[in-house]
C-alpha cells in the first residue's frame, strides 16, 4: 500500500497506557483528522509515527516498508513530516533562514561548505514562494522570536511544507492562531498536493470539518470510531463524549 | 555583507601591521596572540556555532602540538607539513572521542571533554621516551617556510607566519560560517528537535563540527610547537581550555571576529596586568569578564550597538 499502515501500535509510559492496540491507515491522498479529548494520546500517536518515540508494541509500515527501526531523521528523509504542537523553530534565525534549512537539506546541499547558504537560486525561489504563501513577506528577514505567536505557527507549518513530504501530520496547526489568520492555515492545507497523505490533529471543529474526509476519534489511547464527518457528527457516543463537551 | 567581511579583514591586517611596528620587542607575545586566536576560533565553531559545550578544546590543541613536534623531529621539518599533521591529529582525536561525546549534552558532555584532555596529558606524561614527559618535547627545528624564510630568533618570520595561518583559518571559517553547513550548525544549536524533524542527524552534524574544530585546534597546537620549538604538558591543560572559553565569551560567540577581539583583549589585559602586578592580575581579568557578562551578554562585539541603544535611551536593548 502507498502511505502509512499502522498495526497493533501500543505505547506505555511506565504504567500509563497512552496508545493501545491502534490500527490505522493513511493512504496517499488521504485527508484525515484525529480528534479526541486532551490527553487522549493524539500527539503521542504522531510522535510514534515520526519516530520521536519508540512504540512498546506494533508495526508501522510506509509504502509497504517496515520503518519501525528507522530513526526520526531517516523517516523524514523518506517523506514523513510533522508539525509540532508546541512551536519548535529556530528562534534566533530569520524566517528566511528557518525555511532555507529544510530546503537545503532536502536538496542534499546541507553539508556544503564552500557556497553561500543563500546563493542557490532554486532554494531561494522555494523560500520566497513559502514566504508569499503564508503572507510573511514583511517579516521574512526578522528573527522568528520577534514574530507574534500566530505568525510563528505559520512558520511552523511552512517549515514542514518545505520538506515536500509524502505524509504530513499537523499537530494542532491552528492552535493559538488568531481567527483572522486561520484561513492561511486552511488555505495551505487545501492547496496541498492531491497525492499527499494528510493527518490533522485539531480541536477546532470548523477546521476539521472543512478539511477532513474521514475522522478518527481517539479516547484514552484507543480508537473509539472512525467515519466520515457526517457519521462522526451524528455518532451518539462521540456526541456524548466529545462534541457535547467543552470542545463542542 | 561582502563589504563588511573585506573591512573586517582590512582592519585585522592593519592591526597586525601596526602591532608589528609599534611593539617590535613583543613579537613573541604578539605571535602567541595569533596562535590563541586560532584556538579560540576553533572553539567558536564548536561552541559558538554548533552549541557544543566543551571545556576540553586543549585536548586537540595538545594532540596537534605533539604530533607536529614529533613529526618535525623524526620525519620532516617542513612547517606546512607540520601544520597538516597537527590538523590531522587534532581531527583524529576529535573524531575518536566525538563518537561518544557527541551523543551527550550539558554537564555530562562538559565533564567528558575535560576528561579527554586529562587523558591526553596523562598519556604524554607517561610516554616520556617519546614525548619527553614533564620536561616537554624538545628539539623541534622547523625548516625554512617554503624553503625561503628561516625562523629567526627575534621572531619576525614566526610573527608573519602565525599571522598568515590565523588569517587563513579566519577566512576559511568565515566561508564555512555562511555556508549551508554553517547554517545547519546554527540550526543544531537553536533547536536539535527541529533539526531531526527536517531530516538531519544532529549527532552526525555535531560530530563533523567537532572534528573540524579539532582539526583547527590541532593547527593552533602545531603552530605553537613550531614557534616555541617546545611542546609541554601544558598544551593539554584545563587552564588553556578554560581561558580559550573566557576569551570567546568576552568577545562574543558565533561571529568569529568576536573570537579574535576577545583573544586580543584578554591576552593584552593579562600581559599588562601580570607585568604590573604578578599576584593580582587575575582580579583584573575576573572584573573584566564579570563586567562583560553582566553588561554585554553578547560579548564585546556588541559594545557599539549597546552604546548606541543606550544613548538613545532604549532600556530594552537586545544586545
Ligand atoms: N514523555 C511522556 N512521559 C510520560 N507521560 C507522557 C509523556 N508524553 C505524554 N504523556 C502522557 O500521555 C498522555 C497523552 O498525551 P498526549 O500529549 O499524547 O495527548 P494529546 O491527545 O495530544 O493531548 P492534547 O490535546 O492536550 O494535546 C497524557 O496523559 C500525557 O501526560
Ligand atoms: Mg497533543
Describe the protein in words.
The complex is a heterodimer of chains A (248) and B (319). With 248 residues, chain A is of the alpha/beta class. Chain A is built from nine helices and ten strands. Chain A has helices at 42-50, 72-78, 95-106, 121-133, 149-161, 179-190, 205-211, 229-234, 236-243; strands at 3-13, 16-27, 31-35, 57-62, 65-66, 80-83, 167-171, 197-201, 214-219, 222-227. In chain A, strands 6-7-8-3-9-10 form a six-stranded mixed β-sheet, sandwiched between helices. The mean pLDDT of chain A is 94. Chain B has 319 residues and is an all-alpha fold. Chain B has a single domain (5-318), classed as Orthogonal Bundle (ABC transporter involved in vitamin B12 uptake, BtuC), CATH 1.10.3470. Chain B has helices at 2-22, 27-49, 58-74, 79-101, 106-126, 128-131, 156-178, 180-190, 192-197, 202-228, 238-251, 257-276, 281-295, 303-311. Chain A binds chain B through residues 50, 52, 71-74, 76-77, 81-82, 84, 88-93, 97, 100-102, 104-106, 109-117, 159-160, 162-163, and chain B through 175-176, 178-184, 186-187, 190-191, 193-202, 205, 208. The site of magnesium ion has 4 residues of chain A, from α1. Chain A: InterPro entries: AAA+_ATPase, ABC_AA/LPS_Transport, ABC_transporter-like_ATP-bd, ABC_transporter-like_CS, BCA_ABC_TP_C, P-loop_NTPase. Chain A: Keywords: ATP-binding, Nucleotide-binding, Transport. Chain A: This is ABC transporter ATP-binding protein. Chain A: It comes from Donghicola mangrovi.
Low-confidence stretches of chain B: 314-319
| Strand percentage of chain A | 25-35%
Main interface by residue count: A-B, 37 and 25 residues
CATH level 3 topology of chain B: ABC transporter involved in vitamin B12 uptake, BtuC
Number of strands of chain A: 10
CATH class of chain B: Mainly Alpha
What string gives the helices and strands of chain B in order?
HHHHHHHHHHHHHH
What fraction, in percent, of the residue positions of chain B are helical? over 70%
Q: What is the CATH superfamily of chain A?
A: P-loop containing nucleotide triphosphate hydrolases
Average pLDDT level of chain A: 94
- The CATH architecture designation of chain B is Orthogonal Bundle
Specify the helix fraction band of chain A: 25-40%
Radius of gyration of chain B: 19 Å
Count of helical segments of chain B?
14
Within the largest sheet of chain A, what's the order of strands?
A: 6-7-8-3-9-10
Shape of chain B: globular
In the CATH hierarchy, what is the class of chain A? Answer: Alpha Beta
Please, how many domains of chain A? 1
The appropriate CATH architecture of chain A is 3-Layer(aba) Sandwich
Beta strand count of chain B: 0
